[in-house]
Amino acid sequence: ADGRWTDVQNVGQQLNVDYDIGEFHITADGSTMYFHSGSWGDGESMDIWTTKRTSTGWDTPVRVPGVNSANNDGWPFVSSDGGQLLFTSQSTLGYTGPAIFRSVLQVNGTWSAPQEILSNFAGEPTMDDTGNLYFVHHYFDSSVEMVEADIYMCQWLGT
């Protein structure tokens, strides 16, 4: 507020404990939160959920229909105009490891079927208003131990 950070507010039992949310993104207008719940690799499927802000907190979360797969889906990001949902899931194109997927908000308010846009150990996407896509690329050694994770940027040329 007015260029200064305000007091931190706890989102409460529902999101912190009941849904045990992971990485989350709040839309630019502050009205909607997207998050993942579940854990990569523990046998429970991780999905992307959404909840709307109310005057007293947050509504009951729902899984984002048409976006979640049988794989682990998480690390959501929604563009500032609300028209694109980017997230991380397992590559469906035959590459090893995570990939970045993109879904577009349709006229009827649903999300399009996700398309894999960046593969091979890429994840945790963010996009600025000029179309620069920022993501984390993970590097693994021959025993599949992560060596490092670096942040990359590329220009998104898609529509």
CA distance, first residue to last residue: 34 Å
Runs with pLDDT <50, length 5+? none
Overall average pLDDT: 84
Largest sheet properties:
5 strands, antiparallel
Estimated helix fraction: under 10%
Please provide the count of β strands: 12
Q: Radius of gyration over alpha carbons?
A: 16 Å
Return the string of H and E elements.
Answer: HEEEEEEEEEEEE
Secondary-structure-derived class: mainly beta
Oligomer kind: single chain
Strand content: over 45%
How many helix segments? 1
Spatial shape: globular
Question: How does this structure look, described?
Answer:
The protein is mainly beta and 159 residues long. It has one helix spanning 13-18; strands at 21-26, 32-37, 47-54, 57-58, 62-63, 74-78, 84-90, 98-104, 115-118, 122-127, 132-140, 146-155. The strands form 3 sheets. Strands 1, 2, 3, 4 and 5 form a 5-stranded antiparallel β-sheet that branches. The longest helix has 6 residues, at 13-18.
SSE topology sketch:
Blueprint: H1 13-18, E1 21-26, E2 32-37, E3 47-54, E4 57-58, E5 62-63, E6 74-78, E7 84-90, E8 98-104, E9 115-118, E10 122-127, E11 132-140, E12 146-155
Antiparallel strand pairs: 1-2, 2-3, 3-4, 3-5, 6-7, 7-8, 8-9, 10-11, 11-12
What are the key terms here?
four-stranded antiparallel sheet; 1 helix; 159 residues; five-stranded antiparallel sheet; globular
Brief account:
The protein is mainly beta. The chain has 1 helix and 12 strands, in the order H-E-E-E-E-E-E-E-E-E-E-E-E. Helix content is 4%, strand content 45%.
